[in-house]
Amino acid sequence: MLLWTIIGIAALILAGWAFWPRRRGLADAEVDRARRTVQGRGESYNNPSGPNFSGPF
After folding, report:
1. What are phi and psi of 46, to 5 degrees?
2. How far is Cα 44 from Cα 39, in angstroms, rounded to an integer?
């Protein structure tokens, strides 16, 4: 009985660790950096008071 209790607790701990939400490391960092870069480039041209407001485009 004690053995099955220990095995059950270990299985619950492993299942909790496997399904716990966490960051994915380098892949998420690269995606976040790409999103910031694209958003920054778009904001430069969509801002009417920016550097391209009265100059040549």
Report:
1. -90, -5
2. 9
Tens-digit pLDDT profile for residues 12-22: 999 999 888 77
7 with 13: CB under 8 angstroms? no
Q: What number is the average pLDDT over the span 21-46?
A: 71
Per DSSP, the residues of 1-57 read -HHHHHHHHHHHHHHHHHHS----THHHHHHHHHHHHHHHHHHHHH-TTSTTSSS--
- Cα angle 10, 13, 14 (rounded to 5 degrees) comes to 85
Tell me the C-alpha distance between 27 and 21, whole Å: 15
